[in-house]
Amino acid sequence: MANVRNLKKDINYVLGDIIEAVYVWEYANTDKDTKKSEAIIDEAIETFDVLIAKVNDRTVENRKAHFKSIKNELEDKGRALIEKINKLG
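Above: the chain sequence. Below: its structure as tokens.
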């Protein structure tokens, strides 16, 4: 199913880009404490694990609605993580 593959790619790209943005911030701000930025990375990895587990759940009856809710959750979590990165500055 191409939809599942694309959803997994979206999850990977979005959260990967967020982690990369945190690393760029850390590299640009070597004089600042990295505890908050490391927490953002940990949260992104945890979000990745949860969303991939939801995508791989085969017990769902309405798969189309399930995938749509996963995509919406990815958008919400992604925005929240980006806001946290913006507040690091």
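The radius of gyration is 15 Å.
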